[in-house]
Amino acid sequence: MDKILCWNVRGLNRLAKQKEVRSFIHSHQIKLFCLLETRVKAPKMGDLYLTVCPNWCFTSNLCHHKNGRIVLAWDSDAFTVDIVHMESQLIHCQITPRGAMGSFFATFVYGFNTAADRIPMWNSLVNLATSAAWIIMGDFNAIMELEDKIGAPVRFTDILPMRQCMATCQLNVVKTTGRHYTWNNKQQAGDRVFTRIDRVILNPSWDNLVPTAEAMYLPEGEYDHCPMILTTYNVSSQKKPFRFYNMWTTSSDFVPIVERNWSTHIQGCHMFRVVQKLKGIEDDLKTLNKAGFSNVEVEQVRLKKKLSDIQDKLHSNPLDTTLATEEKSTAVEYRLAHERYISFLQQTAKLHWLEHGDENSRYFYQSIRQRRKQNRILSILNENGTLVDTTDGIKQAFMDYYNNLCNPP
Questions:
Q1: Residue 346 scores a pLDDT above 80
Q2: Which residues are paired to 388 by β-bridges?
Q3: Sign of CA pseudo-dihedral 131, 144, 139, 225
Q4: Which of 221, 218, 220, 241 is nearest to 231 (CA)?
Q5: Phi/psi of residue 310, each to 5°?
Q6: Which InterPro entries does the UniProt record give (predicted)?
Q7: Could you read off the pLDDT of 115-142 as tens digits, one per residue?
Q8: How far apart are CA 250 and CA 248, in angstroms?
């Protein structure tokens, strides 16, 4: 899918600024953009179109607010866009990229400055919520975390509306790179305020449709808002690195595996011997994982069902000593399987607060998904400051960096 830009430009009436924005769009190969706070009124909207995006499709929410708060434009060779709903603080549409990717809903928002005025925006987002793929981009003029603002006081009531909306609509934040704070007031040092009010958020269906999406916040330059560019990457499958799972230590075969490999005689220097022994342990642990740990979730579900069936029979025949013995041994097996499953989930998501029962919550699985996305490197700036977004290019960037680090000129 081609790149999508969302940017609060804070006024776009001057011809020089329009040309600057047009140059930015062309240089970053943007095929769909949303410009916020343009302040361009109806008589000058045609001039803006001819200067910034001639021959593209174009719309705005001027009919709902006189100040031209949101302008949306797209290259019809890259996207088909159907406007579904429009109001003063948002434009909601269905987007179909040209190519194999399916359609999705997108909402571009520009929230009003006061909390009271933003209430209709939150209500509209709740009403627009869908189980289909949906993404929301824009300047919410609201923060989601207490850490999203520095230089000015933050109250819990400031973050509550956005958090409630995201929870109700089951939304998550897309993986981000670049600037952390997306707006600042450009004041002197003592009066400078930084906030993170521009966001890209999505629902689980979008996550399934485009698992490699990434939002990059570029430097703001002379503007007060950072441009947001949403990019999707084609990532080829790669061999996963070996990971040690703590649940393996519960197996009776674990200690013998370690002892057997560590007692093996290997010729070579000390470090070589250590590495070879670790490789032997790694191979045996992989075999152990396939034999008894390949699907710990299925195993604990199977044992739970088995335990329930035995207990049903035992209630029908309470004096059956064979069933009582089997129930006791199965309960021990189930407890061990469940502990292994909890250990696996805790280590996978690195969530140390996980308790028994939490592993079935939607929030927990979203946490695992978010962590996996955040750990995946889809793009990186190399030592020359050039953005690299191919698998081979990213590998080379890391190799060049560490080669220069270890072998300085």
A1: no
A2: 380
A3: negative
A4: 218
A5: -65, -40
A6: Endo/exonu/phosph_ase_sf (IPR036691)
A7: 999 999 999 999 999 999 999 999 999 9
A8: 5
User: Which tens digit of pLDDT belongs to each residue from 4-28?
Assistant: 999 999 999 999 999 999 999 999 9
For residues 160 and 37, what is the distance between their CA atoms, to the nearest angstrom?
25
Nearest to 297 by CA among 216, 395, 218, 365: 365
Residue 100 phi/psi, 5° resolution?
Answer: -80, -20
Q: How far apart are CA 290 and CA 250, in angstroms?
A: 15
- Which helix (H) or strand (E) is 280 found in, with range? helix 270-288
Q: Quick check: 183 and 225 in contact, CB under 8 A?
A: yes
| Tens digit of each residue's pLDDT (9 = 90 or more) over 193-242 | 999 999 999 998 998 888 888 999 999 999 999 999 999 887 666 677 78
Report the alpha-carbon distance of residue 302 to residue 304 in Å, rounded.
5
Q: What's the gap between Cα 209 and its chain centre?
A: 13
- The answer to whether residue 155 scores a pLDDT higher than 80 is yes
| Contact call for residues 1 and 213 (beta carbons, < 8 A) | no
Q: Which of 37, 48, 44 shows the shortest CA–CA distance to 6?
A: 37
Tally the C-alpha atoms within 13 A of residue 380's C-alpha that lie toward its C-beta.
Answer: 18
CB 136 within 8 A of CB 106: yes
Chain segment 91-121, per-residue pLDDT in tens: 999 999 987 688 999 999 999 999 999 999 9
Q: Count the neighbouring beta carbons within 10 Å of the beta carbon of residue 285.
A: 21
H-type alpha helices, 28-155: 42-52, 115-128
φ and ψ of 241, to 5 deg? -70, 155
One-letter amino acid for residue 379 of the chain:
S
Characterize 288-313 residue by residue with b for buried, 16 or more Cβ atoms within 10 angstroms of its Cβ, and e for exposed.
beeebbeebeebbeebeebbeebeee
| SS3 call for 156 | helix
